[in-house]
Write a structure and sequence with these properties.
By secondary structure, the chain is mainly alpha-helical. The protein contains 17 helices and no strands. It has one domain: Up-down Bundle (Amino acid/polyamine transporter I), CATH 1.20.1740.
Amino acid sequence: MSERTPGLRRGALGAVGAAVIPMAFMAPATAVFFNTPLAAEAAGYALPLAVLLAMVVCLLVASVIASFARRLPTAGFAYTFNAHGFGRRGGFASGWLLLLAYGMVAPMVLPAIGSSTHDFLRAELGWNVPWWALTLVYGAVVWRISALGVSQSAKTALIFLVLELGVLLALFGMIFGGGGADGVSLAPFSPSSSPDGLSGLGKGMLWGILMFIGFESAGTLGEEARSARRAIPVALFTAVLAIGAFYVLAGFAAATGFGEHGALRTDAEPWTTLMRRYWGLGWLLALTVLNSQFANLISSVTAQVRVIFAMGREGLLPRALGTVGHGRVPQAALTCSMLVSLAVSLAGGLWIGPLGMYGFAGQIVGVAMVLVYISISVALVRYSRREHRAEFSALRHGVVPVLAALLLLLPVYGQLVPLPDGPNRVALVLIVAWMATGLGYLAWIVRKRPSLLEAMGRVWTEDGAPADTPDPDTRATARS
């Protein structure tokens, strides 16, 4: 049966735009500012090593996603990929987890940018504007920009991305040029520099991987990028290599700036300390972080909306969410995303404070995305062996995804041993509860609406019709 539906705007993004969206989603300045103290608390002076290990893992995951994207250009990302690797039920479980992970990015950043702006206005201008009011303003602005389409989102994100990278690279140069606290050495790249050994590196890796989260969002642009089968893999590797090198340099600069026996592990705002010590311009760092958070919001909303759109189009979420409006922008999915994000942001910020909400939501995003990365790595092996056996590469489709999955177990171990307490434990419980709810919903679909299973994992052609691809369940259960 051939069914057609108005889809996303084809060819709306070139290769540069496809790379900018994930790089801005990664929010380099925000990730460095907020995640450095969390990663350093675990990894200590070995901070740059933890970040480097996270980069290696993300490069392996990028290879996995690129292999899928060359075959299945889609807005559904892991949802579609895993439907073709594990069958429709596996695809649904992955999509449900991805929905939680991407759904918590905006609630992670919105309270933080509201709080950061509140602090900046009070410190520099003496204005006392409530953080929640500023959060609402930012939400409205991002909503408006996103409604103009993915091309406008990419252009806006590029401007802010260039600004944030330029400022922080200048600061790194000042730290290295000044010789740091104890001179410049490669000691921070030694495992022995981790005060808590392997567990400390594992926890540091988790926050390091959280810095990279967003690079995979290039996989959601498969229906809007020109020459998607080539552009998406290029965008993935560009994002991980370029911003990854920046992150490793940032970790090295932080370790060098504080020194081996400095207070890096206990300083709640290490970059504020370093900016004042080496540059004396604390206000510039604050503006850079605000700039980065704004770009992160725009790009994360872009990715989240496309996952909602893909699941709505296939009936797993209300079908209205799978429609497009003016300019072939998924306006219904955008509206739903922003309303839910703002509600969760305000509720969480009032519960544990806006910065507490950043850590809480970040925990959910980090753990959920690591599990998604593991699942698509395993799915690639199954998909390649059963559907493209003649082109199966032992290295690219075997060793790389298996190694990625194994390395990703390290941050999972670091997060679970020992179990966290307080809000971080609540975050883990929430992930389990979310998945239990999703599996219950899937069981209901199987019993009451089995026709929805047939829609899962479709790849769409340029004229809005489902592509003629083999049945995912047949493919996932086929025997050689």
